Every structure is written in C-alpha cells, then in structure tokens.
Automatic annotation (TrEMBL):
Domain Fungal lipase-type as annotated: residue spans: 13-150, 343-480
Species in which this protein is naturally found: Caenorhabditis latens
Listed Gene3D superfamilies: alpha/beta hydrolase
Name by which UniProt lists this protein: Fungal lipase-type domain-containing protein
GO biological process: lipid metabolic process
Chain coiled-coil ranges: none
Length: 550
C-alpha cells in the first residue's frame, strides 16, 4: 500500500494493492473456509484480511498515519483499493476510526471489486459510521459475490456494507450506473448469475493488470479521480464546482444540464407518493374546499365517510384597490377521529378578478416569511386574512382536542400556494411539528424565494406538488423576477403526470426541485391541464359533491 499527501486540496491518501499472484489468490480462497477474527467491538472480519492489515499496520502504516495526522490534523483521508485492496481499504478506514486517529466525517472510502469483508455486525457498523463509502462494481465481476453470503463451514452470514455503485456495462466514459439503495440482497449486481473474472480486472474501461504492471500509483490516482467525481452533489456545489444532472458526476467535462444550486441536487423524497391515495382522498379534499359547507360534507360522504367538516372560513382577501371589486378567499378544516387526521384545505382562484389581482401582484412585492426567506405578497396577505379570520383559533382548538393527530394540508392553484404557506405557518407558529404534517398540492404556482423553498423542503418529509402535463400555473411566477431580479423557486417534490392522468397513468417522481427538469421542460403550456387533475374537471367537481369515481 502507499500513502500520499495533497497540500493544495488538503487530502491524505491510503491506497491498498489488489491480490498479487496466484499463490496469494489461493491463500485468500482457502482462508474463506478457515476462520474470522473479532474486529474491535463491531463484529467479525475474515482472518486473511485482518492478518494482512495488521501486518501493514505494524510494518510502518501506524507510525506513518500518526505522523500525517500530527502534520495535517484537519485534512480529509481518502481510502481506496481494488479487489483484496478494496477489502483492506474497508478495514483500514474502519481501523483508523476505531483507533481514534480520525473521525468518520473526515474519511472517504471508495473501493472497486470488493469481496465481502465481514459479518452482519461489521457491515452494519460500517455503513452507519461512514457517510461517504462507495463500492463500485463492474457488470458481472465475480469477486463481489465471494465469499458466499452463507458460510458453509460456520454457518455465519457475511454481508457487504453500503453503498454499491453498479455499472451494468463496459464502464466506458459516459456509461450509466445505478446507485443501489440496498446493501446486500438480491439487488443490483447480486441479480447476476453469469459471472466474469474479466470484468473484475477491467474497471472504468481500463485493464487493471496492465496498470498494476506499469505503476500502482496510476491505479490509485485513477480510482481517486473517480472518487472525486462521485462526490455528492451538495459537497460538489459547496466546493464551488458544478454537478452534472446527466452524468451525476462532479465537474463532468461534458454536460448538457449543470446543477449550480443545492436546492436542485437530485435526491429521492423521504416519503412515498401513493397515486391511489391521491385519487381517493386528496382529490376529494381539495375538491371540497372549492364549494360551500353542505357540498363539502357531501364530498366527504361520497369518498371519505369518516371525515367530518369542522369549519368553513370565507374572508375578504381583496387587493386594496379603489378600482377592482371585492374578492374572497376560502378554506375549510375537517376531522377524522377514526384515522386520526386533521385537514386544512384551501380554495383555488375562483374569479377572473382574483386571477388578475394575483398576476398584477407578481410584479409588486414579496413579504418576509418568519426567518425563512420571502413569499409573494398576495399569498402572504391572503393567508393572514384567513388566519385572522378564524383559522388561528380553529387550529389551536383542534390541536388542543386532538394533540396527536396528523395534519393533512392541500389545495389546488391559489389554494396550493396557500397550502404551502399554511403548512409552513403552523410549524413556524409552534402548533405542529413537521413530522405530523402531510402536504399535497395540485397545480401550485411558485410561492416563495430560494431561502423559503430550501427551508420548506428540508423541513417537510411528506411534501408533494402534483403537476398535470402542460399545466401553465406551475411555470408562474417566472423563476427570474424582472422587477426585483430575485429568483423564485418551487420546493420539492414534484410528481409529474405527462399524460391525461386517467387511472393507471404513469408519473415521474422528480428528484430535482426547480430546474430544467420534468414539467419545466415543456414550452407548450395549457390552461385546460390546469383545470383537469386525475382525469377530473375541477371547475364543477366540488359543487357536484365530488362524485366518486366508479
């Protein structure tokens, strides 16, 4: 193995050599059937890997690492290797943490063609300890499949730790890969049965046998370069680089869609979107807010019989203009004591005059939203009118009566923006915790600025913005504001139906917040798509009592 130092980028390196020669390979294979050794207090690792690492540690590595730590106390440590070197890299990263020399947040682990290294306890400890740990696997590489998960001799079970990055191709430049969300089951490379030694010796379209014969350093540098490329989007942007949405790499030399804001870093939502629940529960909820109290309860009776209307609130939310006529905003609350759910549902824009007020207001001003950015003035004032017009007292009463209930918040169009504000408001006001709130909106316009949207998406695990095909409203207000030159952003997570939204329709769970992705790729926009969601005409749906779909 070698160590290395980069004083410019403040990086220390530990890189371990792969299996060298058939004799060593034979020793490894035979050792799989011999024994394991206790690794500190966190499970067992294979004896060969343990003894090999201890030989290196006592042979000069310990003193070298302690010297480097003394000279460069705040540097990151990058640990890497291929094959046997991959297993030793896993052990080495773990060892320097267990020895108290480095903390886990300073260590990055990146391996290629790693065999299973330890048992369940070791693998679990490793993946819960290191935030940055990637096991790259090439196609049908045989080595990650050994030793067998189920050991025939001692009947123990051995496991890989996270995170596998699987290239199911030749790994040439631009090749796709899969970041596997599971650790070691019948997923990703473990689905392969036609295994290959050739794939083990070829990584990133490079014959590693040739590389090793020329120079071990070249291999190490190559792996470390890829390690840097696989830096997370957030870390990449914090380092003032760009992250490529196409290749999912940091500073990709060829990139059509670069991510420059952390809010757009791709990631899966922390909750699961349910299409059936959206149709059968959420749709009637925002349908009910579009009508009066009698028809609202009929909406519930037809679709969610245990849900009961609690309060219907109607207030004057007009722009203070001497010319325009009065306009109103409405919302309702409801309670289901069986499923322990409270509801806040906000009505959409309901007149042409109100729509004009909203559009004109987009060019006027924004207002501070607590300590988390700015939201559009019209949305702020409309929500405050509802809050002061009975909503505050209603929510405090409901919280007092049903302290452990979930709160479902929803709305369509203007109601969607008010739902976003409302969910945020009751959290900021200290009434409810974010983990007790579910937010689902339909056809939501941009509601606030970058700071508001970033706070929102980092606060709520369950927050979905459903967008129908070419719906025009999610495209407004414009992201770049012409008046104050601010940038407005949607918060996560967009659910985009690029179809008619009939039952069984597919949808995209969009991993970015608000860039050139999903519905933002559409230029041919539609008002009709805005008024039709889940194959339902929302203009008359609530007034008809939200007839149940057959």
């Amino acid at each position: 193995m070698i160590t290395a130092v980069d004083t410019t980028q403040r990086i220390l390196v530990m890189t371990f050599r792969a299996t060298y020669g058939n004799t060593q390979l034979g020793e490894e294979v035979l050792n799989y059937f011999v024994g394991k050794k206790q690794f500190f207090d966190v499970g067992m690792i294979f004896e060969f890997f343990y003894d090999a690492y201890v030989a290196l540690w006592r042979g000069g590595l310990e003193q070298e690492i302690r010297n480097l730590k003394y000279k460069y106390p705040d540097y990151e440590v990058w640990v890497t290797g291929h094959s046997l070197g991959a297993a030793l890299a896993s052990v080495g990263a773990s060892w320097v943490v267990k020895s108290g020399i480095f903390t886990p947040d300073k260590v990055k682990v990146f391996t290629a063609g790693q065999p299973r290294t330890g048992d369940y306890n070791y693998a679990m400890w490793h993946q819960n300890t290191f935030a940055y740990s990637f096991r790259v696997v090439h196609h049908h590489d045989i080595v990650p499949h050994v030793p067998f998960q189920y050991e025939l001799v001692d009947h123990d079970k051995m496991y890989h730790h996270r995170t596998e990055v699987w290239y199911n191709n030749d790994m040439s430049v631009g090749s796709t890969y899969q970041i596997c969300p599971e650790a070691d089951g019948l997923y990703c490379v473990n689905q392969q049965v036609d295994l290959s030694w050739n794939d083990h010796t070829h990584y990133f379209n490079t014959d590693l046998n040739v590389i090793m014969l020329k120079s071990l350093v070249i291999l190490s540098v190559g792996l470390l370069a890829v390690c840097q490329a696989l830096t997370s989007c957030e870390d990449c942007l914090k380092s003032e680089n760009h992250f490529c949405a196409d290749t999912k790499l940091c500073n990709s030399p060829v990139c059509l869609n670069s991510i420059t804001h952390i809010i757009n870093c791709p990631r899966a939502p922390n909750a699961t979107y349910d299409d059936n629940e959206a149709r059968t529960k959420w749709l009637p909820l925002f349908g009910a807010s579009a009508t009066g109290p009698v028809q609202a309860q009929k909406c519930f009776d037809n679709n969610w019989p245990t849900m009961k209307l609690s309060k219907h609130i109607l207030v004057n939310c007009s722009d203070p203009s001497p010319i325009l006529p009065l306009t109103t905003c409405a919302m309702l609350t409801a309670v289901d004591t069986t499923q322990k759910v409270l509801v806040m549902s906000f009505r959409a824009t309901n007149t042409g005059t109100q729509l004009e007020e909203e559009i004109l207001n987009y060019f006027v001003a924004k207002k501070r939203f607590f300590d988390s950015g700015y939201i559009f003035e019209f949305f702020y004032d409309a929500y405050v009118a509802l809050w002061k017009g009975g909503l505050e007292q209603e929510m405090r009463n409901l919280k007092y009566k049903y302290p452990d209930y979930e709160v479902w918040v929803t709305g369509h169009s203007l109601g969607a923006a008010l739902a976003s504000v409302g969910a945020s408001w009751v959290v900021k006001a200290g009434l409810f915790k974010p983990d007790h709130i579910k937010l689902l909106t339909a056809g939501q316009p941009r509601t606030g600025d970058y700071a508001y949207s970033l706070w929102h998406q980092n606060t709520f695990a369950y927050s979905f913005r459903v967008v129908h095909a070419h719906d025009i409203v999610p495209h407004v207000p414009f992201q770049y504001e012409l008046v104050d030159h601010d940038k407005m952003y949607h918060h996560r997570t967009e659910i985009w139906y690029n179809n008619d939204m009939s039952v069984g329709s597919t949808y995209h769970v969009c991993q970015e917040a608000d860039g050139f992705y999903c519905s933002s790729q559409n230029a041919d926009l539609s008002w009709n798509d805005h008024t039709h969601y889940f194959n339902t005409d929302l203009d008359g749906y609530g007034n008809q009592g939200c007839p149940k779909k057959q």
